[in-house]
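User: Before I run my own analysis I want an independent prediction to cross-check against. Here's the chain; please return only the structure tokens and, at the end, one sentence I can use as a sanity check.
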Amino acid sequence: MAIRVSPPDFKKISATFVKGVVKADAVLDDGTPQIAFIGRSNVGKSSVINSLTGQKDLARTSSFPGRTQEINVFSINGAFYLIDLPGYGFVKGSHERKGRLHGLIDWYLFGSHYEQKCVVFIIDAEIGPTASDLVTLGALEEHRKNVLVVANKTDKLSRSKYEARLQNIRDKIGDHTLIPFSSKSKTGVRELAAEIFKI
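Assistant: Structure tokens:
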């Protein structure tokens, strides 16, 4: 199903929190298209979501890695669900807790019957794709997910390093669409909205 919103209208987005889920749930089975957001812990996923929706506190931001403990479901304009997945990689706490969060991601993306219109895969523009990023991207490709890559925190790149860093990312992610992004400078907000809403 096509969802089309002209890019200039992205500020009119109505976003509301529906619920957090940790297992199969009726809300995910109601036929609403799902767009998932995934990234390493502390990569700024919540800031990307807040900037995209124009709501400062929609997704909780924190310097505490692994703050998201559930799969958070947000309704966007009543047209689709934005699925905020827990971060992967470093998670402060026990190995059991880390394993549970990673298991939740694996279940939703790869083990459940739920389908995503798109998976927005967020990486750190300054650091570039890490080993865990590339493993995750490989799994998404293996399961034939429609992946859109967001290079977040571009405001931390100096002008002299900007193009080289982005080219390095492009070389590692292959043919996936790449959107440079910064919640501070608002770089990429319109471009990301346009990509999502044309799906």
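Sanity check: The domain at 7-197 is CATH 3.40.50.300 (Rossmann fold).
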